[in-house]
Amino acid sequence: MIRQDEPPDDVFVLESGRLRVETVTPEGTRMRLRTLRPGVMVGELAMYSGTPRTADVVAETPSVVLKLSKTAIERMETDDPELAAALHRWLATTIAGRLGESLLAFDALFD
Known about the structure:
- The chain is of the alpha+beta class.
- The chain has a single domain, classed as Jelly Rolls, CATH 2.60.120.
- Helices cover 41% and strands 29% of the residues.
- The protein has helices at 44-49, 70-79, 81-109, and strands spanning 10-16, 19-24, 30-36, 41-42, 56-59, 64-69.
- Helix 2 packs across helix 3 (81-109).
């Protein structure tokens, strides 16, 4: 669904199924980073930062994934600013939650 190093043009919402996030280490080893369940957004960090995708996202089971393009978001900002603001708040909350989880996991490694 998403390939590492691709341009960040879309965000995705997993409606049903299960996705696996994985990366390839510099040594060439494929490593699972996390499993995603319905209701999760994918790709928002790369879209906001404008940097290439940092991992692969692969469907583990038959899945329904909704795609929201950067162009559609820009159009929403013009046509329906309130809806766009709500979307951006949801994206910011998602990013903040993931950052918090990552920091806890990082701290646990050094305890």
